[in-house]
Structure formats: C-alpha cells, structure tokens
TrEMBL record:
It comes from Rhamnusium bicolor. This is tRNA pseudouridine(55) synthase. GO terms for biological process: tRNA pseudouridine synthesis. Belongs to the pseudouridine synthase Pus10 family. SUPFAM superfamilies: Pseudouridine synthase (SSF55120).
C-alpha cells in the first residue's frame, strides 16, 4: 500500500534520519511532489511532528561536528553544495559568453543511482507493508556533481548476470538504470551493501560552459586553378597553393570578435560544409557554390551585418576567392545543402582539345545535343577509385553546346548542363571507356579537358539576397 498514514511517514523519516540521509532525499523517498517542500525541506518535515523536541532543526544532529555526506545523494542536494557549484560556475570563463539567458544541464555520479536503489530495497524490507516505488526514485535530473569513489562503487554492477545481456556496453547511467530495473533484490544484495555504506568523500564539480551551435551560410567563388575547397594533404604536405577553407576561416577569425583581446571564434570550432566540391584545378564562377559554416560554442551569437560584409571583403582581397550573401541560417535549412548535392543541376564551361581535322563538324555534332538530354553510365573514375567504392552511376547530361575558339585549330569551348554528381572530365574523355557514352565516342575522336569552370549551381541558397546597402 502507499505511504498514507502519518505514523508510517514519521517512522520512515526517523529511520532515514538515523542513517544520516539528507532532508531532500527523505522527501523524495516519501514520494512528495511539488517544488515547495524541496525549497525548505526541514520546515516541511517538521510539519509531521507535534513534539517540538522531535522536530528536524537540522538534518544532522547538532552534536556531530564532522559528518559524512548523505548516504544517497552524497550531499549533492544540500544547500552548501549548491553554493559551491555556483562558485565553480563563477570561476569559469562564463563571463566570455555574451548571452542574457543561460540553461544549466547537469550530470551526476552513477553511484548515486545504485545508492538510491539500495536504500529503497532497505526501506522495502524494513517496512514491508508500505509500497515504496523504485521507478519514481531514480530520476536525478537536478544532480550536478561527480564523485571520487564512483568507479569503485559501480564495479560490482559489472558482476551482475544482467551485464551479459549488455555485452560491449560500458556502465553508463542508462545501462545501470536498465540493469537495476530488472535486477532482483536478492541478486542486488549479493553485490551491494543494503542500506548503502556511509560515503567518506564529498562529490566534486566539473563545470563546462558551452553555447549552442550557430550556422552562417553563403556562396563561395574560386578564381584560382590551384586551390582546394579544404586542405588537401598527402604525407602531411599541402598539395595546393591555396585553400578556400583557410582563407575563409582566417577572415572570420579576424572579423568576428566580442572584445579587443578575445576572439569570438576559434578555427578549430569551425566546420565548412558545401553543396559538393569541384576539383582543385577547377574554378567556381557565376554566383558561386552554396555552403555553410558551423560554429561550435560561439561566445556571441550576434554576428552583425557589418561583420558579414567585412568577412566578404577580406576574402575578396585574397584575389583568389570570394564569398557572397553571408548571413545567419537555421538548422532546418541545412538539409537543403545535402539534398542539393544529388538533385541540383550544374553548369560548366570547358576548354577542350581534340585532334579532329574538321572542327566545324565536331561542333555541329555536339550541338545536336543542345537541350537534348543524354543518359550516361559512369563507373567510378580511376582517379578517385582509391577513395570511393566501385559502382556504376547513371547520370543525365541535360544539354551540350560547343563553339570554335578563334585562332586555335585544335580547341573548342563546350558548355554543359549536368545532373549533380556527374564527373565531367570523365564524360569528356571517356576514362578508358568507363563512361558511356562520352564526348569522345560522340565525336569519334579523342578529346580532353584543358580547363574547366563551374559557372552555375541551381540551388536557392541562402534564401535571402544580401545587397551591399542596408
């Protein structure tokens, strides 16, 4: 039966007091709901006593000068510990975060779960006529400290037969909760003390300050044919002269600050994600490639219009790259970047070289595919086979158009509109017949790419168009 009678409650309170349990743990074990009892726990417990001498003036007897922490919560619920926790927060770098609102996420020693379970078993045995629930007792969302003896106290959880069902799992809080939920009391008592032993050490605090991730989006352009989107390293050697990511991140680091001496961002906290990528020797022109930068643990979420424009100017001054339309974007919008990698259309301009004698005929043949979709099948190109699995991909070339290059008898300029994910260089030369059909088979002559530009990516990103005037 539930704890209904006053006498039962008083007996349980006295029992837990004798075991040096704190007032808040006693109230929890009485299954008391609501906030007020926990704000002034001693006053709440005093309401159960008519005899003034029996009142809980303090959870611990005044004669005890030095005491051990609460057997269940290790004193985590005590006011003095909460004050220590606040002091720990104040001693961190929290003043670097320019926020008006804060949320506190707390964790707690895993041994507290086991200690609580042990105490409930003890009460069930000592008061067999009282129904004391396990389910409502083991949710400690407000506990926030760690415990030096934790690993010693939870070692026996691994000896329970139930751990075999969780082979390979560590003893996380969730695993411990799952085990205790199905563990028989007798089995538990074989491995753990009931009631829990008196703790001889207090918990200690570890405080981490973290801000929610933010994202900024825009489009980038590459003007150099010796530039990777991200660092391209082989044997720790950079393989390109320039790197777009480095240029962008350095610009962000210079221009996003919240005080003269502390950077708002750290390059290690930045992650670049783009809608696909072009080869290092391919320029990205037109209105650029969609991208976003994830900023972890930003000290200040308020990046201003002026800061965005300053970043754009800094990147443009590099002479080899540009970023445009920089702005804040929402997490919900990010999926459009990934979706666009497979479904968008891409426009290319290629300078191609061939040994065909009649260049006019070559141009004429190619132009029959203007606005005439062509289905091709591409095996994984040889040049990327070392890092991509072998497969055959079906892609569409939506349009091909060619024109002569004045003054050159072996060059033509070819424009393509392709499905995202098409390997354009391989479509041109055929990749040893691994792409079929190819431009080479269409004109019936060897042909290769001399220079390639991406001129347009059909993806609406970001949605808001930014102008240089507010």
């Amino acid at each position: 039966m539930p704890i209904d009678t006053l006498q039962e409650k008083i007996e349980i309170i006295n029992c837990l007091k004798e075991l040096d349990c704190c007032s808040r743990c006693i109230i929890r074990l009485l299954e008391v709901t609501g906030d007020n009892p926990y704000l002034e726990p001693e006053n709440y417990l005093n309401t159960f006593y008519e005899d003034e001498k029996a009142k809980v003036l303090s959870i611990y007897p005044s004669k005890r000068i030095k005491r051990n922490p609460c057997r269940i919560c290790l004193d985590i619920f005590q006011n003095y510990m909460i004050e220590k926790f606040v002091e720990c927060i104040a001693s961190t770098n929290i003043n670097e975060y320019k926020y008006s609102d804060f949320q506190i996420y707390v964790s707690f020693p895993k041994s507290v779960i086991i200690r609580n379970h042990s105490m409930v078993i003890y009460l069930k045995e000592k008061f067999p006529n009282v129904n004391i629930s396990l389910n409502d007792m083991e949710n400690f969302n407000k506990v926030f400290r760690l415990y030096e003896d934790e690993e010693v106290e939870i070692q026996n959880i691994k000896k329970l037969n139930y751990m075999k069902k969780s082979k390979g799992k560590n003893t996380s809080k969730n695993v411990i909760m799952e085990i205790l939920d199905i563990c028989e009391d007798k089995v538990f008592k074989d491995q753990f003390s009931v009631p829990p032993k008196i703790p001889h050490k207090e918990p200690f605090a570890i405080v981490h300050c973290n801000a929610k991730i933010i994202w900024i989006g825009g489009r980038y352009l590459k003007f150099s044919r010796d530039m990777g989107q991200t660092p391209w390293l082989i044997n720790n050697k950079l393989m390109t002269k320039h790197c777009l990511q480095d240029i962008l991140f350095e610009s962000m680091e210079k221009n996003i600050r919240f005080s003269p001496d502390i950077l708002q961002t750290d390059k290690e906290k930045l992650t670049l994600c783009a809608s696909g990528r072009e080869d290092a020797d391919v320029r990205m022109l037109g209105d650029g490639r969609p991208f976003y930068v994830q900023i972890d643990d930003p000290k200040d979420r308020s990046i201003t219009y002026e800061q965005f424009r300053a970043i754009e100017k800094e990147v443009f001054n590099s002479k080899v790259a540009a970023v445009i339309n920089l702005q804040n974007v929402c997490k919900e919008d990010l999926k459009r970047i990934k979706e666009g990698e497979q479904h968008k259309r891409k426009h290319y301009n290629a300078l191609c070289q061939t040994d065909a004698i009649d260049m006019n005929q070559v141009v004429s043949i190619i132009n029959t595919y203007k606005n005439a979709p062509l289905e091709i099948h591409q095996k994984t190109p040889l040049r990327v086979l070392h890092r991509r699995s072998q497969s055959v991909r079906m892609k569409y070339i939506y349009s091909i158009e060619a024109k002569l290059v004045p003054g050159y008898s072996d060059l033509i300029e070819v424009s393509f509109v392709t499905q995202a994910g098409t390997y354009v260089k391989e479509f041109v030369h055929g990749d040893f017949h691994r792409t079929n059909p190819s431009l080479s088979t269409i004109i019936d002559h060897p042909i290769d790419v001399v220079a390639l530009d991406v001129t347009k990516i059909e993806l609406n990103w970001p949605e808001e168009e930014i102008t240089n005037a507010e």
